[in-house]
Write a structure and sequence with these properties.
Structural class: alpha/beta
Order of helices and strands: HEEHEHEHEHEEH
Helix content: 25-40%
Shape: globular
Number of strands: 7
Number of domains: 1
Strand order of the largest sheet: 1-7-6-2-5
Strand content: 15-25%
Oligomer: single chain
Largest sheet: 5 strands, mixed
Length: 185
Amino acid sequence: MGLAKTLASFWMRLMGMRIEYPYPLPAKCVIAVVPHTSNWDFPIGICVRPIIGEKIHFVAKDSLFRGPFEKFFRWMGGVPVDRSKNNNFVQAVADVFEKRDRFRLTVAPEGTRAKVDQLKSGFYYIALRAKVPIVLCVFDWGKGVIRFDKPFMPTGDKEADFKYFYEFYGDAKGFHPKKSFIPKS
């Protein structure tokens, strides 16, 4: 066990979290993580990577990748994307998938740390456009588990696909339970 994995595993135990990772990640996929209620979600996600032994990426606005922090963000798995209003964000991210042999993109489909009752659909359309599966991941602080689902290829039937997503996420509690995602009925 490498040092990063040992430290990450130790910290996860201190935080009271365990990982259920029954399926290997495809070389290319969108990982949709719910609920997103705290700034702690990012460092926890960083700890997950060495524990499961997979490189996982995130996208951020390209302005973060200038100056002294560029190498740090790239080392952390960050990929710059032009998020200006004149740019098609879904297509820009799909282009990243096309250019790489391996790219596992993590997104928080709630789009905010505030309470929502509906997921944003950008992650879904990125997966459709890039022709890659979605891997659902829940950070359930109530049960002390980070759980990955099997890869799911979006069908294009958004209503049916989102019904499946909402069932998987269920009543998971975020770090701040009152902000947790609960789908509207």
